[in-house]
Structures are given as C-alpha cells and as structure tokens.
Amino acid sequence: MKLNKEFIKHTMDGQTVLVPTAQAPFHGLIQGNRTVGVILDCLLSDTTEEEIVRALSERFDGDEAVIREDVSDTLRQLMEIGAIDE
Q1: β-bridge mates for residue 70, sequence order
Q2: pTM of the prediction?
Q3: Is 63 exposed, middle or buried (0-12, 13-18, 19+ CB in 10 A)?
Q4: Are 39 and 52 in contact (CB under 8 A)?
Q5: What are the residues facing 10 on neighbouring strands?
Q6: Is the Cα torsion angle 62, 68, 69, 73 positive or negative in sign?
Q7: Among 10, 25, 58, 79, which is least packed by CB within 10 angstroms?
Q8: Residue spans per domain, the chain
Q9: Three-class SS of residue 80?
Q10: Residue 39 is inside which H or E element, if any?
C-alpha cells in the first residue's frame, strides 16, 4: 500500500497535516501527531502494515499490541477517505 499521489504530507511544528489536492476524492485537512507523521512517512513508498508497526515500535516506546491497533485504525481511516492506494 502507498499514499495516494493526490494527498500531500506536510509537517509544521511537530504536527502533521495531510492535504488533498483538488483531484483527491476527499476535501478537507487531516491533522495528526508525530505518530501519524511516521505512518505517512512509511506510506510515501510501498509498504505493509507490519512494516509500519515495526517502524513505530523502533521509534516510540509502547506496547506493540496498542501500536498495532493504532496503526490499523489509522490505516482504515485513511483508506475510507481514499488516501491510500493498495
């Protein structure tokens, strides 16, 4: 899976914003924290959910089960707005 090319990731002051272009299927801004930023960084190239979980586990302290659940929820939400190409 990979971030849809019609969405642009922007980071400012530790906050991540996902901005859709005019051609994107979703219109609005998505704001996230550093964790969402790492997920979106992973999605800049073709990746898997497992690779994203591993990247977050290496970067942040936390229970892997919680990280896995958070990644799954975030990916589901991004898929719902058309931000991920599978």
Answers
A1: none
A2: 0.91
A3: exposed
A4: yes
A5: 17
A6: positive
A7: 58
A8: 2-85
A9: helix
A10: helix 34-42
4 vs 18, 29, 40, CA distance in Å? 11, 15, 11
Per-residue CA distances from 12 to 15, 19, 24, 56, 73 (Å): 5, 13, 22, 20, 23
Using pLDDT thresholds of 50, 70 and 90, give the confidence band for residue 12. confident
Give the CB-side neighbour count of residue 18, counting CA atoms within 13 A: 28
Query: Tokens 């790492």 belong to which residue?
Result: 38
Q: Alpha-carbon distance 40 to 75, whole Å?
A: 10
Question: What does the pLDDT average to over 6-27?
Answer: 92
Burial 74-84, CB ≥16 within 10 A → b, else e: bbeebeebebb
Cα separation values, 65 from 16, 43, 57, 68, 69, Å: 23, 20, 10, 5, 6
